[in-house]
Amino acid sequence: MVNSSLFRRIELQLLMNLTARAIGQRPECLWTRSNANALQAYAEFTSRHLQAGTDESLLQRMNGEAYRMGRMLRRMFFISNDAAAERLIVALYRNIGIDLSFDSGQQLCFHRCFFSAHYTPAVCLAASALDDGIIRGITGRTDGSLCFSQRITEGCNCCKATFQPKKH
Question: What angle do CA 50, 39, 17 make, to 5 degrees?
Fold first, then answer.
C-alpha cells in the first residue's frame, strides 16, 4: 500500500497541507495530479514560500505540524519498534524522491534527494524542520532533534544527520 501511486500522492498532499498550515498559506491540490507533477508542485511551493527566510516561530510551527503527522503515521502503521519505524521512514521518503538509510540508530544518510535540485541551502535548512518533526514523530522520539552535518544543497555528495539530545 505504501508503494502505490495513489498513496504517494495522498502522502504528498498531507505534506502540502501541513506545510501550508504552518506557513499560513492555502495548500495547493496535489493528490489529483500525476506523481511527478505533484512532487514538482510541492517543491516549487516550498521553495517559493521558504526562499525569503524563516524566523524561529515559523520553523517551530513547521516542526510541530510535522511531528503531529509523524505521530499519526506511527499510530496508523502500528509502529512499535525502531526497525519498523526505520522501514516506514525509508518507504515514505522514497515516495517523495528521497533515498535514505539509517547508518545506525542515531545517523541517517540521505543519498539522493529530489528537492536538492530545487532548493537553495537556506530553503533546505528551513525544510529540514519538517524532516526533524516527521522522523521524530514516527520513531517516537520526544526529546532532541535531527542535526544535519552536511547537505547536498551545500555541495556535499549526500546529506548526513544525527539525533542529538536537546540542549538546555
Answer: 60
Query: Which DSSP string do the residues of 125-166 spell out, in sequence order?
Result: HHHHHHHHHHHHHHHT--SSEEEEEE-GGGT-SSEEEEEEPP
DSSP assignment of 75-125 equals HHTT--SHHHHHHHHHHHHHHTTEEEEESSSSEEEEEEEGGGGT--HHHHH
The length of the chain, given as a count of residues: 168
CB 127 within 8 A of CB 115: yes
pTM (global) more than 0.90: yes
pLDDT tens digits, 34-87: 999 999 999 999 999 998 767 889 999 999 999 999 999 999 999 999 999 999
- Identity at 54, one-letter amino acid code: T
Q: How far is CA 69 from the centre of its chain?
A: 10
Report the phi/psi class of residue 63: left, alpha or beta, with left for phi > 0 and alpha for psi in -120 to 50.
Answer: alpha
